[in-house]
């Protein structure tokens, strides 16, 4: 079951996470239609049905089960977030200067994986 974590109105320019695990930036066209801009495409969606969480800060959209890529001066790491403690530690690392380079959500991984 997908948990809705939205309580307030989404503002243009905020980051959103969909029920399918897509993360992108919310915007409206001149006609008032809702879209999500990702790094690869622009997607139309239904705010009431498709959005599970939104925030001005993309790190707030990370969840347990996601895979993140972090970069600092010395190295680059790809990390699986296996529990809440790991999630909080990653958020702390970002607050201390590591750069969040990318997020692969659990939902995207499950939808695109090749099962052997």
How would you explain this protein's 3D organization?
With 116 residues, this protein is an alpha+beta fold. It folds into two domains: 15-58; 62-112, no CATH class. Helices cover 20% and strands 33% of the residues. The chain contains three helices and eight strands, in the order ββββαβββαβα. The strands form two sheets. It has a five-stranded antiparallel sheet with strand order 4-3-2-1-5. The longest helix has 12 residues, at 84-95.
Question: Summary?
Answer:
The chain has about 120 residues and is α+β, with helices and mostly antiparallel strands.
- Report Rg: 15 Å
Biggest pleated sheet: 5 strands, antiparallel
Given the helix and strand composition, which structural class is it? alpha+beta
As for the number of domains, it is 2
Order of helices and strands: EEEEHEEEHEH
Strand order of the largest sheet: 4-3-2-1-5
Topology, please?
Elements: E1 15-18, E2 23-28, E3 34-37, E4 42-44, H1 47-50, E5 51-55, E6 67-71, E7 76-80, H2 84-95, E8 99-104, H3 106-112
Antiparallel strand pairs: 1-2, 1-5, 2-3, 3-4, 6-7, 6-8
Keywords:
116 residues, alpha+beta, five-stranded antiparallel β-sheet, 20% helix
